[in-house]
Each structure stands twice: as structure tokens, then as C-alpha cells.
């Protein structure tokens, strides 16, 4: 982040519509990015392995999400100069840091799934 941006937006400015962190939050918390971070937390995977691990993702969405995660420094793309092409993806140190947060959220969701679904059912029944 440039000095001007860091001076203008301090920690806690995420609610400000102009804060650049909002775009990053949107990219990290997309459905596919979260699942990719979870799938790569302990493994280096090829594109096809990653697609199988992240059930339901299209090739296009997987490629786009990986590109965003790579641009932001969370995922490293490793291309081997062989035939047929061999490309692998793994988390960078920054990716492992954010991945720990995502794992914490995923663990919490799984631990509280019944309570959440119960609230959802009650809300739906009341409509």
C-alpha cells in the first residue's frame, strides 16, 4: 500500500466505502477463495486436484479465484517446464497467515452448524 493510502486509511477504516481493504475483503471472503485457502492449507495441489477438492467450482471460477489469490500474494503458482504442462499451487507465508483465520472461521461454523440451521429453520417457518 502506498504511503498516502496508509496515511489516509488506518486500521479500522474497513467500514469506509473508499477503504482499499474492502476490495481485498471481498476477494478473500468469496466462496471459492475461502474454499481454496482451506484446500491448500496443508497441501500443494495441481489445478485438477484443487478442482476436485473444491467441489462444485467451475474451471473458470477456480482459475479466476486462483489468479486473484496469486495477485494478492496468498497463493504461489509453480509452473514446471515439461510436456504436458504441470502447474501446482500452494499457499505463500501470507496465505498461510490468512488461511489460519479462515480455518478458525470454518471450525467455528462446523461447531455451531446445528444452532445456525435451527435459527434459519425458525426464521423460515415464521415467514
Automatic annotation (TrEMBL):
The keyword Transcription applies. It comes from the Bacteria. The keyword Transcription regulation applies. Residues 19-117 form the HTH hxlR-type domain. One of its GO terms (molecular function) is DNA binding. This is HTH-type transcriptional regulator YybR. Keywords: DNA-binding, Transcription, Transcription regulation. Gene3D superfamilies: Winged helix-like DNA-binding domain superfamily/Winged helix DNA-binding domain. InterPro entries: HTH_HxlR (IPR002577), WH-like_DNA-bd_sf (IPR036388), WH_DNA-bd_sf (IPR036390). Pfam families: HxlR (PF01638).
